[in-house]
Design brief:
The protein has about 130 residues and is mainly alpha-helical. It has helices at about 1-30, 105-110; strands at about 85-90, 90-95.
């Protein structure tokens, strides 16, 4: 009996949520001009159209990975954003993001001594949840 009430309550909540989400779109579709206009209407710019939703985005970002070494092939690790200049067709470009990655530290964090560990599924007891493996 309690499970039926919980199911009915969750269905009612879903129906209410659906009605709230769909109500603005249904009322927007019902709004029409009852008087015909003699002039042709021009589209209203987004800044003057408070009811419309307009999202415009333009991003020109290029990620460039750089590895800088000295004459002996050792990495130079004290570089800053100001040490780099980027240009496109001769025009200087701004560097919006800069990070120094310590590749040698990352390489030592990886254990290359052998293959990754494997789990013999046949030796596991039945009904073992994946998070306990």
């Amino acid at each position: 009996m309690l499970a039926g009430k919980v199911r009915l309550l969750s269905l009612s909540a879903c129906a209410l949520l659906l009605a709230v989400c769909l109500a603005p779109s249904l009322t927007a579709g019902q709004q029409t001009n009852s008087a015909p206009s003699a002039q042709t209407s021009t589209p209203t710019p987004p800044s003057q159209n408070p009811g419309g939703f307009v999202i415009r985005s333009q991003v020109n970002m290029v990620l460039v990975d750089v590895r800088v070494t000295d004459k002996s092939g050792r990495p130079i690790t004290d570089l800053k954003r100001e040490d780099f200049k980027i240009s496109e067709d001769g025009a200087p470009q701004s560097i919006t993001s800069f990070s120094l990655e310590n590749i040698e530290r990352l390489e030592t964090a990886v254990d290359k001594s052998g293959p990754p560990p494997t789990i013999d599924l046949a030796k596991l007891p039945p009904n073992v949840p994946p998070e306990q493996v």
